[in-house]
Amino acid sequence: MYKKKKKSLLSKRFRTFYPVVIDVETAGFNPMTDALLEIGVITLTMNSYGWLKIDKKIHFHIKPFEGSLIHKEALSFNKIDPFNPFRGAISEKQMLKEIFKIVSKGIKKYGCSKAIIVGHNVTFDHNFIMAASHRTKSINNPFHAFSTFDTASLSGLTVGQTVLSKACRAMGVSFDNNQAHSAVYDTLKTANLFCKIVNLWKKIGGWPIKNKKMEEI
């Protein structure tokens, strides 16, 4: 007889969602027309005491899709040369295949129902992922179609800061502005920030929710 997998602490914490931190670097602001150039992905785990921490880290350089627009202003900002032969870039389709495979394994491991993208001003990252998935006709997209966790909003609530560098410093996460706007670096800092916020909420008694406490509010 099939036995349903027991939910993990991670699954219970986020309503069966599996949080995955993502940051993208692009050649513009339009996910439908502008090239996706780089992506950093960090999966999370939770120990037996309920503390959230970083698990796996992956990173890809991405080839601009055929017909995509590349804006010089964007490249001057992120310092990426899309046509550098030493980038080791792969196609959008291959990138998504690798990410979907890793994320799907995490969903299964922790007894989750769906992955949810965590990011700083996450709508930007989410839109580019969904556009690339649609463009490449990728199947089995594990990410929620519209729900996300935004560390800019969470930081605004927690420490009154919405800029990534300022929010990190306010939460005790070091931040080097010279390394910013790299998918690898920004993903790592966003992941650390998200874990700090979630763990702080637990530390001050906000999780797990006590029904008696909620009734007194």
List the SSEs and their pairings.
Layout: H1 9-13, E1 17-26, E2 36-46, E3 52-61, H2 72-78, H3 92-109, E4 114-119, H4 122-135, E5 143-150, H5 151-159, H6 164-170, H7 183-203, H8 211-216
Parallel strand pairs: 1-4, 4-5
Antiparallel strand pairs: 1-2, 2-3
Helix pairs in contact: 5-7
Structure report:
It is a single chain. This protein is an alpha/beta fold. It contains eight helices and five strands. It has a five-stranded mixed sheet. Strand 2 and strand 3 form a beta hairpin. Helix 5 packs across helix 7. It is globular, with a radius of gyration of 18 Å. The termini are far apart.
Radius of gyration: 18 Å
Helix content: 40-55%
In this structure, how is the largest beta sheet organized?
Answer: 5 strands, mixed
Q: What is the oligomer described by this structure? A: single chain
Content-based structural category: alpha/beta
Enumerate the strands of the largest sheet in spatial order, edge to edge or round the barrel.
3-2-1-4-5
N/C terminus separation? 45 Å
Strand and helix order = HEEEHHEHEHHHH
The total of beta strands comes to: 5
Query: What percentage of the residues does DSSP assign to strands (E)?
Result: 15-25%
Instruction: Give the number of helices.
Output: 8
Shape: globular
Uncertain spans: none
Mean pLDDT: 94
